[in-house]
Amino acid sequence: MINHVLNLINGLNAERICVVVAPNHKEVIEAVHPVATAIQQEALGTAHAAKAAKSLYEGFDGDIFILFGDTPLIRQSTLQAMLDRRMADDSPDIVVLGMRTKEESAYGRLVLNQNGYLDRIVEVRDANAEERKNNLCNSGVMLINGPKLFELLERVENKNSKSEYYLTDIVALLRADKGLAAVIEGEESELQGVNDRVDLAAAEAVFQNQARLAAMAAGVTMISPDTVFFSHDVEVGQDVVIEPNVILGPGTIIEKGATIRAFSHIEGANISSGAIVGPYARLRPGTEIGPSARIGNFVEVKGSVVEAGAKANHLAYIGDARVGAEANIGAGTITCNYDGFHKYFTDIGRGAFIGSNSALVAPVKIGDGAIVGAGSTITKDVQDNALSLERAPQSSHPKWAIAFRSRKTREKDK
Q: 10 Å Cβ neighbour count for 208?
C-alpha cells in the first residue's frame, strides 16, 4: 500500500519525501528504501506523527502534502487539484481533501463557514448530533504551507476524548490566526481507508479493476481481465496479449507485442517485444527475456538473461544463467546453480542446443553452436560447435525380458 502512495508522489516531482513509521516497522523502512523515514517513538496522534518528520524539513519553504499509507487509491489528479487550489488568488495556507459519504460514517466532519472556507474539523468522537448529520467528511489528506505547518503543530494540544494530538486541530489554529483553509472534494471510492483484511480486499478489488481498465485502454488485450492480477508498478506495452489467470508481480515490465499465456506467474522480470511466455511459466526476479524468445509450459527462469530468439519450451529450470540468442533448451534441462552454500553462473552460447534431460553443473560454459547430448550431466566447459556427451554405455540383452517375466510369475504363484 505504501508503495502505491509513493508512486503517486513521484509523479508530482516532490522535492522531499518522508515516511513516518513506528519503532518496530522495519519491514516498512525496507519497503520504502531509499525514501527517508522518521520514527514516531510513541503513538500519540497524527499531529505528533507529523512532528516526527520536522528535522527532515529544516529550511524547506515549499508546500507539504500529508498523505496516509492506508489510503492507497487516491489519484494524482486529485492531488493536483489540491495544488491548484493552494495556488489560487486567495492562497489558502491549508487545503483539506474531503468527500461526501452516503451514510453516517466514522470519519471526522468538515465544518465550513458562511464564505465556504473550512472553519474546523471535528473528529466523529467529539462531534455533536448536528455535526454528525453533515456528510462532508475528512479524508485526512492535507496540503499545507510548509513554513506554517510545524509552527501550527507546536501549538496543537491533546484536550480531546482520546488524549491525542490531532493533526486536524491545525485548521482551527490557523483560523484563529485569521488564516484561510479551503476544501477540495474527492470521490469516496478513491479515499477509502484500509483498517483490516476486509478493507484490504475491497481496496485491492478497486485497484485491480482500475489497473485492468487502464491497461486495456492503452492497447493491452486481456482474454479474461478479471483473472489477471496487477501489482502496483507493473508496466505493460501496447499490443501485449495476456491470457487468463496470470499474476504480474512487482517489478514486471512487458514490452509491446509480447504474449503472456495462461497461468503464468511473473515477478521482477523484463519481457521484450515479441516474446512468448507460458502457459504455466514462472519468471522470478532478475529475469530478462529477449525479443521473440520463448519460455514455455512449466519452465522457471530466475536471475537469468534469455537472449533474442532463444527457446526453452517445456519443463526446464534456468537459474543464474545466460542463454544466448537462438539457443534451444531441451525439455527437462536444469542449470545446477547451487551447491548448498553459493550460487554459480551458467553461460550458454549463441545457437547452442541443449538436449533433453541434461544437467548443467555451474560454473560452466557452453560455447556458441555447441550441442549437448540428451541425458548428459555437464561439469566442464564445452567448446564452440563441439558435441558433448556424458552418459553410461547402453547395453542390450536379447530375450532377457521374457525370462524375467517368467521368473517373476513363478515367484508370484508360490
A: 15
> Per the residue annotation, which of 232, 314, 342, 397 is the catalytic one?
314
Which domains are delineated in the chain? 2-190 (3.90.550.10), 197-388 (2.160.10.10)
Give me the amino acid identity at 307: E
Cell of 315: 519443463
Q: Is the pTM of this model over 0.85?
A: no
- Please give the grid coordinates belonging to residue 211: 489497473
* Across 163-178, average pLDDT: 92
The pLDDT value recorded for residue 24 is: 87
Q: Is 314 a catalytic residue?
A: yes
Do residues 350 and 324 lie in contact, with contact meaning Cβ atoms separated by under 8 Å? yes
The tens digit of pLDDT for each residue in 51-90 reads: 999 999 998 999 999 999 999 999 999 999 999 999 999 9
Spatial CA neighbour of 148 closest among 97, 108, 95, 98: 95
CB 327 within 8 A of CB 352: yes
Beta carbons within 8 Å of 356's beta carbon, 6+ residues apart: 330, 331, 332, 333, 374, 375
